[in-house]
## 1
Amino acid sequence: MTISQQLRDLRSTNAKLKKLGGSRLKRTVLTIDEISNIITLYKNDKSSNVLKGLFSRNIVSKSGFKWDISRHLFEYQQVLLIKELLLLDDINCNICNYCKCETEFNLKTKKYNKFCVECYKSRPWIHKMKSIEDRLVQYNKTSNSLKLFAKTKIGEELYKNLGKHNSVKMKEFNKTDKGKDNIRKNANRNSKLMREKIALGNYTPPITNSFTHWDAKILLNSGEIKKFRSSWEACFYFCNQHLLFEKLRIPYFDCQKQVERTYIADFFDNVNNILYELKPKSQWLQSNAKLQQIISYCLKNNIKFIWLNEDNILDYIDEFLFIGENVLQLKKLKKGIKNGSYFVTDKVN
């Protein structure tokens, strides 16, 4: 007698409500000994279908008799049995293919997952870093290809139009609330990064002197031309080349803006622990709060602080050493002291 589709649907619905699965209304419950016997049989002879007659007369293939057995059991026994049989087939089937941790058993597929939960979520194999050499080779290949393309007429036109398009879009985006917030976040992040670089000595801000509009250059005996912020620094260094220029960093607190900053010392004698600060008298009062913190730092760290101003800077300069092009810087130094035009050398982050 043929079973109607309506009866099939009714049996299937009832089975699902009772969590029996499929259209079977009855499931077998095995004892622990019976499960152990099945596992033992499978272990002893995995190449044959010795288990095919335990629950049905169906002849199943080698790869299918695990499922033929499990479909007659309740879910918790299915999991228990299949887990054991799978491990017998492959002892590493429950190991993550990427991180080698244990994986979970998938009730839907009746198999162990290939990846653990963390690897499945993050998919680290997608972002796997190659060796530095491989990345450099790949970067050079891509970079050279793009450079060659950019030199062509099509490339020039493409990048020109792309630049205009991106410029318009960025200006529109920066006018939005999200764009303004993004600019503010980037500014704060960059400011923090630059302060850290300055404090560690990895970067010195290129502050130009607002009171002077000429270049302070000194030609060293080695033939190297070294630039400075002022003729004061240029002449002082030319006569004291054993000193470190803008190398010593000292933290201090800016009371006016309520932020932590880093002071960059003009010159430092790391052998005798002497800090030389080049600053005219007119500029001392403006930086008094900062300089008092610098002096306190020097006292705590056994560093001698020497303030060079228009009254004593020439005591540290040997005028007979200046010849040729270097005479110009000495003349500027003397002229500045005589006329009362001084410079600013505050170098902070």
## 2
Amino acid sequence: MKKYLQIFFLVLFSTSSFAGSCPMLWNKLDTKIKDISDDNLKSKVQKLRDAGEKAHLDGDHANSEKLLNEALNLLAS
């Protein structure tokens, strides 16, 4: 029984720690968006960033990270 409780708490707390990475990603995007001169690229990145924040607020952290990383990849290319 003790082993199951340990696993339960590990899963519970690891999930909440991953949820905290979404705001770090969109803050990273916020600082990089200012330097984009291409309006089309800036619009795409801003839409992905906003969709990522909305997904985070709705509790869908996996989708949030996917969208935010997609926006960061657009900036890297």
## 3
Amino acid sequence: MSLVNLIQEKVKANEVVLGYNRVIKMLKSGKPKMIIIANNLPKDKKETILHNAKLAKVEVKEFDNDNVNLGLVCGKPFSVSVLAIKGSDK
């Protein structure tokens, strides 16, 4: 399954958390299955996400396109720099 299809499937099922601050909060409190970041996420934010994901042992994938296109894939009228797929198996 491609990354785009996975994102669209999880958005339809309401199993995603959008936005940098909400993803960081989820990493610290819950445990997402996977984190997807846009390729133009600022370096400092990317390093913070990668560090927290490493501590939580969560897989991070980089979307091949920018945040505007990631927002379009999610079906949102705004840009999305980072999203987390909720983990059902804790």
